[in-house]
Amino acid sequence: MVIVPKKTITVSDSSNEKSVEFPLLDGTLGQPTVDIQSLSPNMGYFTFDPGFASTASCKSDITFINGEEGILLYRGYPIDQLAEKSNFLEVSYLLMNGELPTSAEFATYEGEIKWYSKIHEKLRGFIEGFHYDAHPMAMMVGVVGSLSAFYHSEMDVDDPEHRRISALRMLAKMPIIAAACYKHSKGDPYVYPRGDLGYCENFLNMMFARPSEHFFIDEGQYMDPVAVKALDLLFILHADHEQNASTSTVRLASSTGANPYACIAAGIAALWGPAHGGANEAVLSMLEEIGTIDRIPEFIARAKDKDDPFRLMGFGHRVYKNFDPRATIIRKTCHELLEKRSTVDPLFELAMGLEQVALNDDYFVERKLYPNVDFYSGVIYKALNIPVEMFTVMFTIARTAGWVSHWLELMADPSRRIGRPRQLYTGSGMRDYTSVDDRGGA
Known about the structure:
Number of strands: 8
CATH superfamily of the largest domain: Citrate Synthase, domain 1
Number of helices: 18
Helix content: 40-55%
CATH topology of the largest domain: Citrate Synthase, domain 1
Strand content: 5-15%
Shape: globular
Structural class: mainly alpha
Order of helices and strands: EEEHEEEHHHHHHHEEHHHHHHHHHH
CATH architecture of the largest domain: Orthogonal Bundle
CATH class of the largest domain: Mainly Alpha
Radius of gyration: 24 Å
């Protein structure tokens, strides 16, 4: 979409009395954006914005966030409507194509996902080359990156159909690779995907079944529908989140025209960081540190003490200044899943106790430090028997839908430019080289 500026903003330089007008761009929603592309050639300055917190790095039609009002939209659809009425595969189609599919389009799409839900047998050998206790995210980075070797000669980033097939392959293969990495770490035989199971059911089956049996959870119930629903919902909520660190990494790598599988591998590496995809793992670590319900007041007091380094993980959000809309959605499912369990893990009792304190304590309410999606997702993954080291892998499966959508959008943009941020240099000024004999010292 071409944006025609309706207003301008004037920037004046008092040192030379020079003024330059910059277009003020209005998107469909959100704050106006100053187009500063002409700042350097006209005024000789760069902007300084660590973390790019005030910089729009691209135009995108995919996701919109209003952190002040707790709004998250996928292609214009509120996240709560999609969570209630849709499923992850339909949401992934929406993100990639811009519109919800008709029944015929969805049937074709689902069939294609199942068709590409196979990995080359040679890839199994690659997985088996990792040490048994390698971190699953390290394996994911390596294995997904290696797909660029399997699908290189047939890849043409300038061909829309080739791009579409690459996106489908990545979305289809990610849960297969993730489950295979887990099986390798356990020393268990691999379980192949089944054509009669849905996306989330297939993943759970590949994770926990033996080759000759179904996956079961709690008292032998095959494919517990509450468990499948919880996983599907988490995948929807984590599918995309605007220009976050990993998505920006994918777009930056993609701007060079690199192989898409390598670009997604770069996104996985960025997601691995504890400040990004590892937040729900940190929630479990915090709960284990607290230990028991009777110690909650002690840790609440520590969280309020600005001189204490302890922080409550999974509360508040950098983007959402009011509440995390995803947490509001997933809270109900979290409680449903925990209530269905025949035995209650003390860790879950602790989590729910901490939730109640935070929701009713004036300190947290006034500061809007509500439980976020990472708090509930960590608890849900634990309830589904997902190992803690696999939590970020789960995030990877879901976020692949967003990554490939942004990759498709960028590659279809005729004005695509290679990413090249500037810097504020603070090193030494120009100086002359001296020989080692002239540098002094013994």
